[in-house]
Amino acid sequence: MNQSSQNRRSFLKKTAVASAAGATAPYFSWSEKAFANQSKNDRPRIGCIGVGSMGSGDARGHSNFGDILAVCDVDKKHAESAKNHDRIGKGKADAYEDYRKVLERDDIDVVSVVTPDHWHVKIAIEALEAGKHVFCQKPLTLTLEENQLIRNACKKHPELVFTVGTQQRDAKDQFLRAVNMVQKGMLGKIQTVTCGIGGGDVGGPFAKSDPPAELNWDMWLGQAPKVDFIKERCHYQFRWWYEYGGGKFTDWGAHHIDIATWALGEDQEGSGPIEIDGTDAKHPVPYSHGYATEDNKYNTSHDFAVKCKFASGTDMIVTSRGDNGILFEGEKGRIFVSRGAIKGQPIEENWDQDQFTADDLKKLFKGKPHEGHKNNFYRCIREGGQPVSDVFTHVQAMATCHLSAIASRFGRSIKWDPKAEQIVGDEEAATLFARTRREGFDIPQV
């Protein structure tokens, strides 16, 4: 390791540790431009793992805050395109097929993980073990077991910052305003929350073929079962297969359920639903004992209204029907919030006038100033502290996402013990707590 790399890594680590211990860290009003103007030795050095359409977009965002030294993708076309992009690799980054080559580099401080969902936790834990700060796209986990694995890894490495790509958490005029209103009781006790997340795609039967020469299909599959290549299984379409994702339950659910559980205060360890009713759910293929009986069609639920009951008495409806967004219905009023708008009588009449202040925003941002979630990530690297899109609250939302998918796969109601984190009274449904991983692709348990 050269001297400048040692100085930079030492600076980043010392700053985070000092702030975590309660020291007063320098408080700059940072922006992307401020990061761009930092001296070269102070800018974080970044490795981007997964640089398809979403990954390359995230890489462009990261390039505002640091220097990208490495890009990695099991599709060589993706890796080469990112390597030569004028805002990502600029022709100077090293391109890899194997993510472990990125993690073993001592000159990389930050890793961005934007792979298909079934790879997230394995790469993220290994990155933490390698001493890297991690930005990982949502949904962070594939299973309920992975929730525990990544949470344990983050507890082991409190000196490292881990941000999840749930960017709705920085939307001040929509989602943060809604969270503030609910948390302050302006709507009264919340009776029902409806998360409209849209329906998954329906398609197939699809043709099996040889994988393209540029794609390492075996590595793409990773922990998932080894199957013949189907073009519609990979890249963007992977999310419509339970082998690699959770359909809309985890795709949009990772956004809207996250905001809903945050607003309700159901985002802490030990909280969550106690009963999840998946009887009103349809799939594009027949199911038997929780598994699709056909392997050449999309298999995630496309039409559903799952009812999640919380011990507080609040019901959460997770549905593919109606408008995309979140409807909070309380004893005093109701509001609907989406990425495009926030509306309802409490909004029209400004019930939160003078009650949504800079201090309120700072509280939601865990003591940091309100800013974009990537800005917040790099600020936390420099100052220490938890990011607004943290792992610990995210996995609580993911539990509801995964439980909704499991209940739908069996087409029945299941019970969940949120403190023990166990499906109770249903041994068959409980088998989906974890997945059997293919040999050679296990996840470190730290």
3D architecture notes:
- With 446 residues, the chain is an alpha/beta fold.
- α7 (144-156) packs antiparallel against α15, α8 (172-183) packs parallel to α11 and α11 (253-264) packs across α15 (391-410).
- The model is unreliable at 1-37 (pLDDT under 50).
- The two termini are 27 Å apart.
- The chain folds into 2 domains: 3-169 and 376-383, NAD(P)-binding Rossmann-like Domain (Rossmann fold); 171-356 and 391-433, Dihydrodipicolinate Reductase, domain 2 (2-Layer Sandwich), CATH 3.30.360.
- α6 (120-129) links the parallel β4 (110-113) and β5.
- It is built from 16 helices and 20 strands.
- The longest helix has 20 residues, at 391-410.
- Helix content is 33%, strand content 18%.
- The protein has helices at 3-20, 32-36, 53-62, 76-84, 100-103, 120-129, 144-156, 172-183, 217-221, 248-251, 253-264, 345-348, 358-364, 373-383, 391-410, 427-430; strands at 45-49, 67-72, 94-96, 110-113, 133-136, 162-164, 190-196, 208-209, 229-230, 273-277, 281-282, 287-288, 291-292, 303-310, 315-319, 325-330, 334-337, 342-343, 413-417, 422-424.
- Strands 7, 10, 11, 14, 15, 16, 17, 18, 19 and 20 form a 10-stranded mixed beta sheet that branches. A 6-stranded parallel beta sheet has the order 3-2-1-4-5-6, with helices on both faces. Strands 8-9 form a two-stranded antiparallel ribbon.
